[in-house]
Amino acid sequence: MFNKILIANRGEIALRVIRTCKEMNIKTVAVYSTADKESLHVRFADEAVCIGPAASSDSYLNIPNIIAAAEITNSDAIHPGYGFLAENANFSKICAENDIKFIGASPEMINGMGDKAAAKETMKIAGVPTIPGSQGIIENFDECKKIAKEIGYPIMLKATAGGGGKGMRLVWKEKDLKNAWESAKTESKAAFANDSMYMEKFIEDPRHIEIQIIGDKTGKACHLSERDCSIQRRHQKLAEETPSPFMTDKLREEMGAAGIKAAEAVKYEGVGTVEFLVDKHRKFYFMEMNTRIQVEHPVTEEVVDFDLIKEQIKVAAGIKISGRNYLPQLHAIECRINAEDPENDFRPSPGMITNFHAPGGHGIRVDTHVYANYMIPPFYDSMIAKLITVAQTREEAILKMSRALDEFVIEGIKTTIPFHQKLMKDENFQKGKYTTKFMDEFKI
Q1: What are the 10-residue block averages of pLDDT along the chain, 444 residues in total?
Q2: DSSP H helical ranges for 241-372
């Protein structure tokens, strides 16, 4: 087992990793930018090293500074959390070159799954259902037009190096294809320095359901059931739950098996998710594989009583997984609390938190790094807390969440708490009637 782990991240996920490390009797090192000097992850780690100024490019994305911090503190492993360098193949490679264990996927795995077109081909060969579309990268517009006609409109153009909705265009009719092709390539080139595109049949009224998987060095994998992440705005998740209200026992068995098949096809080592689109007929299609811990991992932990960070560390240390699959015994919901103003197009709201009170009680979990008089910097992602409720039934979990949101006090800034309060009282949400298009019609 590792003696000391450096956490190459910030905020609540850095604090989350520190907590598990302490429970495993592993020393921790926090890294921080000058803007995060007062963050709780800095306070609760055994050691802390400043790695640069506020800008992410100069601190949390500064690989030489992070490696230097690991070396001067004698850290034998680095946990990247999510975001930042968590799926950076070069960072994983540099860690290995410096004899530091990267607690995540190998460079080959990150590259293989990061290229969406290549990942889709890999899954197709493995027998995992995939969305009809192009065979890899589309070479030119003439080929694009030909493929679109073959698979039928509507179609979705996607950047192979894409993420966060960038380089994506939905095209309903052939007359709009040329403009979509050119604008998507331009946006992808600016965002990722790569304008390669592929195409998929657009799945109408889909749900976004992901399977949590764990694989070890022997190539064996297991799954920990599903999470429904369909409540999204501009491809950014707002709330998640497990089990999915859309799920059936048969579908869960089929999707779980497909998740394992996907992981074992690439000999996946570590904790990750296989993400699917599920249409209204409950047919599911592989979308992508995330080679890291997910923001929404707590809902899975709560329904199967399992520490995913602990398992991630154990697998990285060479310990084999049990091989058993886990099914949800309870119901859990997570609301992402962001420093944003939901009444003004979710505009970021950094600033000083003047008053802070976290809800409590049975079945309530709050993952956060903020507190009263904490200054939220404007340089990073706006998520400041995750509120998770767990109960025997979905109805009870929703009622518990409503009560917890009413108790959650964050003053001095705007937050998404009012949005979630309204979401929990929405009739369609309460009935489990929602898709990835839910936010198109939901009025704050």
Answers
A1: 98 98 98 97 98 97 98 98 95 97 95 84 92 89 96 92 84 96 94 91 93 96 98 95 97 97 94 95 93 97 97 97 94 98 96 98 97 96 97 98 98 98 97 96 82
A2: 249-265, 297-304, 308-316
All domains of the chain in start order, with CATH: 4-103 (3.40.50.20), 132-201 (3.30.1490.20), 207-441 (3.30.470.20)
365 is annotated as an active-site residue = no
- Residue 58, helix vs strand vs coil: helix
Q: Is-contact 356 410, C-beta < 8 A?
A: yes
The pairing of beta strand 383-391 with beta strand 331-338: antiparallel
Q: Contact, 130 vs 123, CB < 8 A?
A: yes
Alpha-carbon gap, residue 176 to 99, rounded angstroms: 51
For CA atoms 164, 166, 167, 170, the dihedral sign is positive
Contact, 135 vs 122, CB < 8 A? no
CA dihedral 417, 35, 17, 5 (to 10 degrees): 170
Which tokens in the block code for residue 304?
Answer: 């199967």
From 207, 292, 336, 365, the catalytic residue: 292
